[in-house]
Design brief:
Layout (H helix, E strand, L loop, with lengths): L1 E5 L9 E5 L21 H10 L14 E3 L16 E4 L4 E5 L3 E6 H10 L5 E3 L4 E4 L4 E7 L4 E6 L4 E5 H6 L7 E3 L6 E6 L7 E6 L2 E6 L4 E7 L2 E6 L6 E5 L4 E4 L23 E5 L2 E5 L1
Parallel strand pairs: 3-7
Antiparallel strand pairs: 1-2, 1-21, 4-5, 5-6, 6-8, 9-10, 10-11, 11-12, 13-14, 14-15, 15-16, 17-18, 18-19, 20-21
Length: about 280
């Protein structure tokens, strides 16, 4: 079950809850899906299905045309919390993870392939660059206004690459590397707007903010939080705790307002995932 909550600008404001029941849209990333749908995370894909947003126009430019990014990879051993694909329309590129490497591709080249390839065919899409990391890739995201790509591997080691270097240099090296974190990363979310250098990192026993410019941890909250997300403008962090409450924190770690009790009728004892939209918080329990 999904539950949507209308959120006012102040975290202490009351919530208006709307529960939506029905079949989820099971849409793993497949190159045979429409061009734009390939670029959506599973969570956002389900949200679009449930709320039937009108601004998204999906068109399939060619019948049964597939783009193969690389050979099939074995997904066994990957944690349930991971992200292996991300897109930057601002930079005109997208990134896709392999087993121990990732590649950066041109969106224009992908669109050209879909519009020119013969129907009912599978064609390879050549990457701009492939970067080997030497260990299993678990997270990959664009960050800092899409100027960098941030990766995390099975050892929870974080590396940050310049997008321009990935596009132009023969052997791009990380701008920064952060040593292995003490436990697996449950969620890795770059700040969407207000504080672009900050990255939210949720682990089993803590939530922290990492500054990719200063290479420092600017905030840490000890405790078991089950889900976390940025507010739409990136000025606050919204977390779900083990008591099923929603709590709001500033980037300095100070709690804002009061915790909101678990909505009545919400299935599950805790929040499994939080996704924020302007004036809307999507909750998966």
């Amino acid at each position: 079950m999904f539950s949507s909550m209308s959120v006012a600008s102040a975290p202490t404001s009351s919530l208006q809850q709307r529960e939506v029941e029905g079949e989820e849209l099971d849409a793993p990333v497949r190159s045979s899906l429409p061009f734009l749908l390939c670029l959506l995370s599973p969570t956002l894909t389900r949200a679009l299905y449930l709320f039937r947003l009108q601004w998204l126009d999906l068109r399939k430019p060619s019948i049964d045309t597939h783009a193969r990014l690389h050979e099939p990879i074995n997904l066994e051993g990957l944690p349930s919390e991971c992200n292996l694909f991300d897109v930057s329309s601002k930079k005109g590129v997208f990134v896709a993870a392999g087993i121990d490497a990732f590649s950066i591709y041109s969106l224009e080249a992908l669109e050209t392939l879909f519009t020119t390839a013969p129907r009912s065919t599978t064609s390879p899409l050549l990457p701009i660059k492939t970067v080997s990391l030497g260990e299993r890739l678990v997270w990959i995201k664009f960050a800092k206004e899409d100027s960098v790509v941030i990766t995390s591997t099975s050892s929870s080691t974080i590396r940050i690459f310049s997008v321009e270097a990935l596009k132009s240099e023969q052997a791009p090296q990380p701008l920064q590397s952060f040593p292995s974190l003490p436990s697996a990363i449950i969620s890795l979310q770059p700040n969407p707007e207000a504080l672009p250098s900050l990255v939210l990192i949720l682990q089993a026993a803590s939530l922290s903010l990492l500054d990719v410019d200063s290479q420092t941890e600017t905030m840490r909250l000890e405790g078991r939080y089950t889900a976390a997300t940025w507010s739409p403008k990136g000025k606050q962090v919204v977390v779900g705790d083990e008591q099923g409450r929603l709590r709001f924190f500033g980037p300095d770690g100070s709690e804002k307002g009061v915790a909101l009790a678990r909505p009545s009728g919400l299935e599950g004892d805790y929040f499994g995932e939080l996704v924020s939209f302007p004036s809307l918080l999507l909750i998966r329990s």
